[in-house]
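re the bet — no i am not wrong, look at it urself. input seq straight from the record:
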Amino acid sequence: MKKYIFMTHSIVKVGGAEIYLRNKCNYLKEKGWQVYIFSYDRGKVLISDLREFEACIIRKLSFSPMVFSCRERQRVLDKIGQMVAARSDDEIVVESNNFLITLWAELLTERLGARHLVYELQEDSFIHSPGLLDFLKFKYERREFAGITANSLVNFFSPYFEVPESNRYFLRAYCSNSIEDTDTDLALPLADVTIGSLGRIEKSFVRSAVEGMGRFIGRHPELKFNVVFIGGERNGHHREKAIRQSLGKYPNVNVYITGLLFPIPAKLLYSVDVFLSSAGSAFATANLGIPTISYDANDLQPIGILRHTTQNSIFRGSGEPPVSAEELLSEVLIQKKYPKDIHSIPDVHPDFSSHMDFVSQMSPKWEYYDFKNYVYSRKERLMRLLVQCFGYHAVDWLRGVRKFLC
């Protein structure tokens, strides 16, 4: 039997990662694969196609496996192994989507005699320990590590070594098909202009986008604005409060934050005059014909008007200097350079054949990372000591409290 095991951080939010998982899971099932998704974030699973994996949420996966004793690691792996029920004749692929969980994925892969693809979905991730760097370099050299853009591996490894252009492995993460022709309960009041942002509001670029919106709104006191954030945040981030405080000082603004939605009602998107978004969320609205300002994940500044002045939604290309949000908003809303040209919802059928081709082309020599060579970071040594002294549950509770208080 063919079994595909995802190890990721969350199935409980509605973001690009969760929509990608839903899409690829459905694709794999159509191709005859039995799919499992193991994760660690707790909460309500909002995407119906992912609810079958709620029983696969294992909180201990949020810790590095190096924090636990060998015996405790084996207990976690035993639990996963029992759920997968692997047999010696199974064809098994493990895919990890987050640096925090990728070490668990390698341990599981060796236990099952499987192949392991490290496919990091985040662009703002960083290599947080010398052991993780050594591990990821091992996977990269075996062609078992890919990102979501051609710049991903460059960003991850740039502080340590140069990645040749020919070896910048990346795969497309299809996640723009979250929009459906459904009704919405949100009734916006009359306004001259409606500005929107699609995606989770704790994303790094949102702070910059809010500041740009504020400067533009402040220059046009004669206009009445609706500002709509279509998305929510993970517990403990407190971005909603900061957004309301930042834009609330302008008397000509109504601010709306929908929280996590799935699917996203097309009618709500069509009511917006311009979006400020990044990555797949930017393409989702641009594909509908709504002017969309895309943001760079590195400098957190606008790249341009997607599909008009730029074709990039995550990283600016060469010869694309940062531009101000106020200037772009003025071009769209005041000068009317890029009018809204509504399109119907694209009929998208994500094809992950390139992903499967990449797996088939990974190193033909089956080899696993030797964790005896793993070099602990200071944080890992501290966490290991805390777990040994106070127990996993107490440390996990303290982590949650600290995050909540911050």
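see?? The two ends are 46 Å apart (CA to CA). told u. also The longest strand covers residues 2-7. so pay up
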